Amino acid sequence: MTQIAFIGGGNMARSLIGGLLKHGTAPGDIHVAEPMATAREALTRDLGVTCHADNAAAAAGAEVVVLAVKPQVMPAIQVGLRGILQDTAPLLISIAAGVRIDQLERWFGALPIVRCMPNTPALIGAGATGLCANGAVSAAQKAKAQEVLDSAGLTRWIDDEALMDTVTALSGSGPAYFFALVEAMEAAAVAQGLPRDAARALAAQTCLGAGRMLTEGSEDAGSLRQRVTSPNGTTQAALESFAADGLPAIVARAMGAARQRGAELAASLDEPS
Ligand SMILES: NC(=O)C1=CN([C@@H]2O[C@H](COP(=O)(O)OP(=O)(O)OC[C@H]3O[C@@H](n4cnc5c(N)ncnc54)[C@H](O)[C@@H]3O)[C@@H](O)[C@H]2O)C=CC1
Ligand SMILES: O=C(O)[C@@H]1CCC=N1
Question: Are the CB atoms for 90 and 110 separated by under 8 Å?
Fold first, then answer.
């Protein structure tokens, strides 16, 4: 079996490891480097994976190394990792927001690299991941990267790396937009007098049902929306209010801010010329 190392054992690493274990990867084939002792203990206790305090120790012997640290931590981990990665030449997968493939090549050397952007629903196997490969990634390695991310949910290859910040703005950050909308819907229902537990249950099930209609049926969001909207009915009244308040522009501005933040995060990691 392929040995996989995770550098950073936080939320996303945990989600991706959970998916791999569910899809048949043996815990013994997964090594995790994590500086926090309590997190290492929890990972071993909960998932049965082997944890290391040292990044190079986790990466030694791995055919796939997943970089799952915060973007700001990325330049610092090259110190301990570059040597071992140059010796073993694994497939390097980065899940860090913003961080570009050319930066990864500069820090870790010429390697097959896949930059990807998963999201938190990976925790329940319902994630969505965009992936982008550099020219050194073989067809077999591409298939391996896809297999790793497929275990967390849906995957899509993105040919143009410049669009990865848009993927981050769409599906990487997207779960938070959705939760924010649900919070607002629940709060409005409670303000109208509905008990909180009823508001929460009805809102959550509504989102589940709407999401399943989108993913399990063949209709797009626009036509599903139209089917809810009776002429001169309640939905029309709500949608007209959204339109008057500029919902599409609000969403476009928010996604623009997310995309720009991805680019800024990456730029902040470039050495001044
Ligand atoms: N949270 C999210 O929704 C998503 C996050 N991402 C990306 O995933 C990456 C990780 O994010 P999270 O899991 O949310 O963060 P997190 O903070 O939960 O996990 C990061 C882990 O890295 C560890 N760490 C810190 N310094 C380290 C070092 N020098 N060597 C090894 N490990 C070190 C931390 O102790 C922590 O456990 C980020 O780059 C983020 O942009 C990608 C998609 C979605
Ligand atoms: O907020 C962030 O920067 C990360 C990347 C996408 C989701 N969470």
Answer: no
Query: Which residue from 69, 70, 73, 168 has its CB within 8 A of the most atoms of ligand 2, so it is best to mutate?
Result: 168
pLDDT digits (tens, 9 = 90+) for 73-104: 999 999 999 999 999 999 999 999 999 999 99
Tokens for 141?
């390695």
Superfamily holding 174-263: ProC C-terminal domain-like (1.10.3730.10)
33 lines ligand 1 (CB under 6 A): yes
CA 87 to CA 113: how far, in whole Å?
Answer: 15
The one-letter amino acid code at 168 reads: T
What count of Cα atoms within 13 Å lies in the side-chain half-sphere of residue 222?
A: 1
In the CATH scheme, what is the code of domain 4-164? 3.40.50.720
User: Does the structure's ipTM exceed the value 0.90?
Assistant: yes
Res 1: pLDDT = 65
Q: Please name the residue ranges forming H helices in the chain.
A: 11-22, 37-47, 55-59, 74-88, 101-108, 139-150, 164-167, 174-191, 196-216, 221-228, 234-244, 247-267
Q: Are 240 and 46 in contact (CB under 8 A)?
A: no
Q: Where in the chain is the domain with CATH 1.10.3730.10?
A: 174-263
Q: How many CB atoms lie within 10 A of CB 36?
A: 12
- The pTM of the full predicted model, rounded to 2 decimals, is 0.96
State the span(s) of the chain assigned CATH 3.40.50.720.
Answer: 4-164
- Which residue has the CA at smallest separation from atom 44 of ligand 1? 119
